[in-house]
Design a protein that fits this description.
Fumarylacetoacetate hydrolase, domain 2
Length: about 280
């Protein structure tokens, strides 16, 4: 496994505690456009020069779009049914959960993405906002899974619950997405026992925490990627968020200055304040 970090000067590769900077130019786009990103990263690490990791990083993204899958965990299905029951859409998400075709939606472009330590936002016209911690797949231009990162799918639950057709407004806006702290490059499929954990701090105190495992994910990575690439092309590759199995209670909403901490080992911890 190689972890790729992005700093102000480019790409850094970390493997077994050693950090190398590629001797030849290598970008995130180069990885996603490669037919074999894992081999490319391994070659770049072997031929690189020793370096050290800086104190801060950028989001591990180049020209990639970000897409997302919804209602992939039972907990997410239940939450979506609850938030939309007053609009008469309670059974809508139950049907999506059990359908052959998954829910896939466009989440963002690079300029809307927050990196590690950067602020994510809550919509000014929303009163009920939550983060959604998600394992995020790195898919090359052919749809091949070659790595993972941590994603935060910021969501306005009141807007989405008012009408399912309002999903783009509830999900897509400036800094509605965070990615990081790195891109884990590997041919190994993460174990179903892989743990996803979130902690939300307010004024130094924990106001919400939760955890789940990939084993609770209803759909396979191959299934989600296969549907996304049907009649769709991604010359620069794409990131695909796989949904969330952790949903705060209905009484909870994010506040400005909250700190969101999402941990998925062996990727690391993504930390973002709320701006």
């Amino acid at each position: 496994m190689i972890r790729a970090f992005i700093d102000s000067t480019g790409l850094l590769l970390e493997k077994d505690g050693a950090v190398h900077r590629p001797s030849l130019p290598l970008s995130v786009d180069d990885l996603f456009r490669s037919d074999d990103p894992v081999a490319l990263a391994q070659h770049a690490f072997s031929g690189g020069r020793p370096a050290s990791l800086p104190d801060s990083f950028a989001a591990p993204i180049g020209s990639q779009e970000i897409w997302a899958a919804g209602v992939t965990y039972l907990r997410s299905r239940t939450a979506r049914m609850e938030e939309s029951k007053d609009a008469g859409g309670g059974t809508f998400y139950d049907k999506v959960y059990h359908a052959e075709r998954p829910e896939l939606f466009f989440k963002g472009t690079p300029h809307r993405v927050a990196g590690p330590g950067q602020s994510v936002r809550i919509r000014a016209d929303s009163k009920w906002n939550v983060p959604e911690p998600e394992l995020t797949l790195a898919l090359n231009h052919q749809g091949k899974l070659f790595g993972y990162t941590i994603g935060n799918d910021m969501s306005s639950r009141d807007i989405e619950g008012e009408n399912p057709l309002y999903l783009p407004q509830a999900k897509v806006y400036d800094r509605s997405t965070a990615l990081g702290p790195c891109l884990l490059i590997t041919e190994t499929v993460l174990s179903r026992s892989t743990r996803i954990a979130i902690e939300i701090r307010r004024s130094g105190a924990t106001v919400f925490s939760g955890a789940t495992e990939l084993g609770q994910l209803k759909r396979t990575f191959a299934e989600l990627a296969g549907f996304l690439f049907r009649d769709n092309s991604f010359p620069n590759g794409t990131y695909l968020m796989t949904g969330t199995g952790i949903v705060p209670p209905d009484s909870f909403t994010l506040h400005a200055a909250d700190e969101i901490r999402i941990t998925i080992e062996p990727i690391g911890t993504l930390v973002n304040p709320v701006g």
